[in-house]
Write a structure and sequence with these properties.
The complex is a heterodimer of chains A (about 675) and B (about 80).
Chain A lengths: L15 E7 L5 H9 L3 E5 L6 E9 L2 E7 L11 H11 L5 E7 L3 H13 L4 E6 L3 H6 L1 E2 L1 H8 L3 E4 L7 H13 L11 H15 L11 H10 L2 H8 L4 H17 L4 H20 E2 L7 H10 L5 H44 L4 H19 L1 H18 L1 H14 L8 H7 L3 H6 L7 H10 L9 H11 L4 H26 L9 E3 L8 H35 L12 H9 L11 H9 L6 H9 L7 H5 L5 H13 L4 H11 L2 H29 L1
Parallel strand pairs in A: 1-4, 1-5, 5-6, 6-8
Antiparallel strand pairs in A: 2-3, 3-4, 7-9
Helix pairs in contact in A: 3-11, 5-11, 7-8, 7-10, 13-14, 13-15, 14-22, 15-22, 19-21, 20-21, 20-27, 21-27, 22-23, 22-28, 23-24, 24-25, 27-29, 28-29
Chain B lengths: L4 E3 L8 E7 L3 H9 L7 E7 L6 E5 L2 E5 L1 H4 L2 E5 L1
Antiparallel strand pairs in B: 1-6, 2-3, 2-6, 3-4, 4-5
The chains are: A alpha/beta (about 675), B alpha+beta (about 80).
Chain lengths: ~675, ~80
Amino acid sequence: MLGRTNLEGDWGMGPIELALAGNPNTGKTCIFNNLTGARQNVGNWPGVTVEKKEGTIPFQGRSVKLVDLPGAYSLSSFSEDEAVARQYLVNNSANAVINVVDSCNLRRNLYLTLQMMEAGANVVIALNMMDEACRSCINIDVEKLAALFGVPVVPTVAAKGQGMQEVVQAAVDRATGPRRPFKIEYGPALEKPLAELEKSIRSTAGLDKKYPSNRWLALKVLEEDEGVIEEVKEVAGGRAILARAERARAALAQKGVKADSVLIAKRYEYIDSLVAQCASEACSTGNVLSDKIDKVATHRLFGIPVFFVVMWLLFEFTFRLSGPFITLVEDGFSRLGAWLAIALPGMNASGLFTSFVVDGLVAGLGTVMGIVPVLVTLFLGITLLEDSGYMARIAYIMDKPMRVMGLNGKAFIPFLLGFGCNVPAIMSTRTLESKRDRLLAIIANPFISCTARLPVYILFASAFFPAQKMPVVMSLYFIGLALAIITVKVFSKVVPEEKDEVFLIELPPYRLPALKGVVTSLWEKISDFLKRVSTVILAAVIAVWALSSLPYGVEYASRESLAGQVSSFIAPIFTWAGFANWRATVALIFGVLAKEVVVSTLGVVYKAGEGGLGAALAADFTPLSAFSFMTMTLLYAPCIATIATIRSETKSWKWTLIALVYGFGVAWLLSVLVHQVGSIFS
Amino acid sequence: MNAKTMPLNCLPLGRVGVVRELLAGAEQQRRLLDLGLVKGTAVEAVLKSPAGDPKAFQIRGALIALRNGEARQVLVGLQ
């Protein structure tokens, strides 16, 4: 089955690029961290929001680059993750691929291995021992596996860092050695059309040698692989090949042979026979302990209570832990501001410049950065839930209820997280495979009332509804949730439906999260967030400063400032909503920095401290217009960090703008509705 | 096909079935095959979610949740 060809790869001492591939939950991330340590770089794969991690491995004085491919079971293009991994491999970007294989689960893991080898990748298997229980009862003949498959196999224990150098050595050897093509015999019925297709590919200039091998391309067109077909169509002579494949499929179908079924079945057959020859399968029936936990955690009766307890713990944990740090961040910035307010004039800085730095940059960034501790703790909670395996169970339990909204169980997580903070919530939509579902979940998410809006509700509810504080605040949460659901429904009519896909969730065995990995991934997420949103946030901070402090010399955010003038001009649009005064409008404009700023701005424009603000508000608001104003604050526009996140996750200013205009429209309509309907009854 | 053939979603918990046939359309079928649901593969029904749908199956060493709508497309023979 193996043979050497003249595809000699000679990289000499040039740079080597290795890729790391494997199924999810095989210890791939752990190996990546072991090998690259802190020398990591996180970005995005071109055109998609799938995370791309790269690192360097110091190896015998050479710098070896390691690219972490998204975890995938297969190289089909069903999900973005798979498509990314596949595109990378098919373009032959890596000199060698380290394929992490869970030794307890050869029969599933080797399917990806096989597909990568068929696609011409230079594979080295890192046979990773996942858990103790399995290690004691499974017995793999490593040398035989290597000999049968024709690839180097290195046993590793990722969690203990064992076998790491050996893997890299094997991969570098492989990268600098000759390429060895790999071929599975699919039987006479299929080999004949395959050979014919290969022949016509060879005579088509645009396709010959374009892909890893002409045989691989022949297989893919015969399998009717959508990704490949789209590409082949574009090439001169491509359509003729597709027509030939179509005829071959029809001829096979007449003999009762479904080409794609047989090809996939043959691959699994090949793996089964290989595994039978080199591994004892004493314990192939899954994870006993994990199954026991699931009997409770996903139980018909206990499943839901367990879920509520875990969620309560998540939020408790997040806010207890983040509270002190928020204060720390805010204090830090205000001290920096106070120091600069004295230091800058001392350095002959102009008053305008000092105001720009102190009132603008430092004060503004201090406000927006107050979000970071919440992000850190929420991300920490999410990562722990993900790594432990419980996150997949949430999607599993909530799938049926979420179908009422036309979404699947995986879309539940973003909605839930939105009650904490919309930023990580929107980022968590990445787990949704369908682009359409992602877009719907992103646009609806800002309506979910995050914690930053609570201070506004508390201020107004205490001032105007002292006796019914709780019900008033709760009603706002429900209005937000209801509108999120309605939004999904409305936009699902607008955004084109995708083809019927198979929905599945893998439930990985429960595992104790490894702390080291958690900290690394936390740092990655936060720095990634800051990098991607910093420009938008900075622009907003500067704009708010200009509005509040220009023309130069006016009192901060007073009626004479730009903000005051603009607000006086637009305030009349809130006449029907009951709060057409410029102060409320200024508060709403500044609230875009962060929703809790609505409270502090009101304090400034009413010239009232925390205590007296409630009384001062009574001059401009009635209980009804207070409720209408709270509704507005809940819905009108997400904060700047969220806007920037929507933009970076949708990669589209168009959808960001649509989300904003739609959000404001809904907010205006609803607060008008509240005030007008309320006026009838009061 | 003998009398003991049933759609996968009806497989009782704890029982093992062997894949006999896939009924789904081309695209879905390929996805299911890719998952390892090829003819002759043993599948065990392991969990039922609180709502009864989806259900989780042990397929080639991984625990995978499928909705009833999709599991219905997989015919299995009881062992």
